[in-house]
Structures are given as C-alpha cells and as structure tokens.
Amino acid sequence: MILEVERLAIDYATRAGRVRAVDGASFVVPEGRIVGLVGESGCGKTTAVRAIMGVLAENGRRAGGRVSFKGQPIDEATTRRHLWRDIAYVPQSAMSSLDPVYTVGSQLVEVMTRRGGYARAAARARSAELFELVGLSESRLADYPHQFSGGMRQRAAIAMALALAPSLVLADEPVTALDVIVQRQILDMLRGLQRRLSLSVVLVTHDISVVAYLCDEVVVMYAGQVIESGPVREVLARPRHPYTMGLRNAFPDLLSDALELVPIEGSPPDLADPPPGCRFAPRCPFAMAACSATPALIADSRAPGHVSACLRDGEVEQLRPLALDPVTWQRSSSYATS
Ligand SMILES: Nc1ncnc2c1ncn2[C@@H]1O[C@H](COP(=O)(O)OP(=O)(O)OP(=O)(O)O)[C@@H](O)[C@H]1O
Ligand code: SF4
Ligand SMILES: [Mg+2]
Fold first, then answer.
1. Alpha carbon of 27 to ligand 2 centroid (Å)
2. How far apart, in whole angstroms, are the C-alpha atoms of residue 287 and residue 55?
3. pLDDT for 255
4. 143 closest CA partner among 105, 189, 107
5. Ligand nearest to the CA of 40
6. Given 120, 141, 164, which residue is the final one in a domain?
7. Smallest Cα–Cα separation from 56: which of 46, 68, 42?
8. Residue 152 domain-assigned?
9. Which of 110, 136, 164 is the last residue of a domain?
10. Which of 37, 43, 267 to mutate to test the pocket of ligand 1 (most atoms within 8 A of CB)?
C-alpha cells in the first residue's frame, strides 16, 4: 500500500463550536491504482485529502487517526518533507493553484526551483516536458492563467503537481465544472499519465460516473465517514450500502433497465450536529428503528476488499433491487417495516 489512512478524524474550530468534518475514516491506496473518493458536497472529501497533504485550513486540526505513506507514519509536521516531491496535490479549484499575475510557465519554474532545488535552465526544460506530458503546447508556457480555458487550467494544475515527479497524486475534483467532452479528455489523460509514470492516484469527485469511468477502487464517504469501499467493478455492480445504491441511480449507463435519474432527496447532515446512529438514516428508504445504532464496516467474505457499514447488510440482496425502483426514493415511500 502506498497510502494507509486509519480512523482519521479532523476537526474545524468554528464560532458555532467544533465541526468534525472527517470522523474515523479509514481507506488504503494500493500502489499504481486510481482510487476514487466519492460523496456529495460537504462529506469531508477535501478535508481528508488536505489532511493527508498536511495543508489543512488554519482552524482545522487532526484530532485522531494515522496516515502512513509507504509504510511510514506521516503527520502534520512530517508531511511537509513529502509535499510535492512524493505526494502532490491538485487543489479543488485549478485557479487556486495558479497565480493570475504570473505566466503559467514561470509558476512551473518557480515550483521546481523553490521546492525541488532545480537550476533555472533545467526547470525551464522540464516545464516544456511537463506541458507536453499533459497535452499543452510549449508555446502556451508564456500565457497567463486567464488566457487558458478551464480544461487547459486543469492540465496546467496537473503539470504543476507532477513537476517534482511524485509517486502519489491527490486530485480534488479535477473535472468538476468542465463540460463532458473536456472531462473525458482530462480523465483519459490522467489514466495515460498514471500508466506512463506508474502513479498512484486519489481522485476526489462527487460524480460516481467519473469513478466508474476512471477508477480501480472506490471509497464512498458520507457525512465525514467512509460507508463503503472496495474494487470499483464490484462495488458498482453490487453496492451494499443504500447511499451507494442511491448515488449509482444517478448513473444510468450502469443500469440496464433504468433510464431515469433518481436523486437522493434531502442533503447530508450538518456536521456540527450529526444525527445519532447511522448518519444516512434521515434519507435512507430502508431505515428502521434499529438504525439509531452506529453501523460498523462489515467485510464481504465473497468479495475481497469490499466493506460496507449498514445495519441491514444481511438483507442486501433484497434491498438492492428495491433501490433500482425510483418509487423507493420518494419521500412518501418507506420500506422501514418490510
Ligand atoms: N475551514 C473550515 N472551517 C469550518 N468548517 C469547514 C471548513 N472547511 C470545511 N468545513 C466543513 O467541513 C465539512 C466538510 O467539508 P469538505 O470541504 O471537506 O467537503 P467536500 O466533501 O470536499 O465537499 P465539496 O464537494 O463541496 O467540495 C463541511 O461541513 C464544511 O462546511
Ligand atoms: S443502517 Fe439503516 S439507515 Fe443506515 S443505511 Fe443501513 S438501512 Fe439505511
Ligand atoms: Mg471538496
């Protein structure tokens, strides 16, 4: 495993009190794999990757858990040593990794001379190489970020992350806000880079179709917790958590008989005051009184690596077909008593 995250807990201090944005999340990134970290807005995805990078917001702190990179524990103090050289980060908005007042090329050179100890001439040569790697023409190194399209900015942000030849890249929503064709181009490029450079990648997204398209493994987060994870094909073909079943309904390509997109009504809970027991219960069509207990992650003996935290895991074969029926997800409907 290149990265192991065990029971990670991250708190933000806010005026309204403590917000535990990541609450006991565990997952692993196998070497040379692309792991999708997926969940709706506010589920703690960015907080988790920023905590791994050691670049949390000022009011954030690690309240518990362990992160290991290549078997060595890393914490807020020691991640700085790995930053960019071993582990690189493509932030959620590509614009936030690019400074509007400098050319993109000079920013690439800056990363390499300041963080990587490159001589200027070598950094310039490497910039051209990096641009070629991400499919940008060398002549665009002289452009300013505003002269780039959204897709080009993402490519530049990826080039910047790759500057010091890291082995692990954490990319936060690299294709969000791009149109579908550009999304595909960037995802295909990421897959190509991952193979060519033997990278391990954590790809953060709220879109499960992006996970299906690109990732080898998936980690599903809900309300700061990992509620299901495993190999992508297995988890998307046989989701065990109702939240994952709900997310999958937004991806009709995977479903032979459902063409309708079915949203999960409501939104994730306020993490300043999460509901007791299963955090998905207020939105879960299968919630029962027993769901006021806290579900633990359960492994599937038939599917190695597939874990899920639902108290009705034993009934999953009955629940899964019901989850394909849009009626199940209507507020008025409830299988709580079935
Ligand atoms: N600096 C901060 N201070 C206080 N709360 C924060 C801070 N940053 C994030 N949060 C809260 O932590 C929770 C998780 O946020 P985070 O940005 O990690 O989620 P996310 O899954 O990346 O969402 P999105 O898809 O919107 O990017 C949210 O409730 C958010 O409001
Ligand atoms: S534990 Fe209960 S509420 Fe939570 S996902 Fe499972 S069935 Fe739904
Ligand atoms: Mg985010």
1. 21
2. 37
3. 43
4. 105
5. 1
6. 164
7. 46
8. yes
9. 164
10. 43
